[in-house]
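Annex B. Sample input.
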Amino acid sequence: MSQEQWNAVDRYFTDQLAPADEALSAALAASDAAGLPAINVAPNQGKLLHLLARIQGARTVLEIGTLGGYSTIWLARALPADGKLISLEYDPAHAEVARANLAHAGLDKIAEVRTGAALETLPVLAAEDEGPFDLVFIDADKRNNPHYVEWALKLTRPGSVIIVDNVVRNGAVTDADSTDASVQGTRRVIELMAEHPRLSATAVQTVGFKGYDGFALARVLA
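Annex B, continued. Sample output.
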């Protein structure tokens, strides 16, 4: 199968099951106008995040890696009116775009974007007694994924869900000798999920608009 065919299937599923609306389209347009990289989740993947949060009955969500807030909108829309989402973004310019997109979507009272390196802002969340979060979505620099999952475990509860995006790396995840820090970080996080006594996890390969990739999904145990 070709990338063209993958895209056609994704387009069909998106048109049928996850059609764009004004706020989502505006978020993508604003991100593009601001020069943000086009690495946001695909629309059908955003809908999957939304459904997972709804199935989980999530009231609180932590997102590590905001970009322009496209996935943030999908997740925040799954929360009740008194729910809370905190998203961590390293780049101040990206965070500014995301905040504007969330405000345009009417979600700025539910979703908060904090700026700074996540490994510095995560301890602040813990010190502020934020959480426990019902769902954590990790989509940031891949070399630090093991650290992000360790922090997610500190900020969740038994029954919480942790999702780690981009774990296939176009198939490079199987290369133990890779010199790519993102591949090695991904391998370490998969090994951590496999071995950690408080996690039950799996990973799924995907194809589509975003090429060949996948995500890992874990449930926090008692």
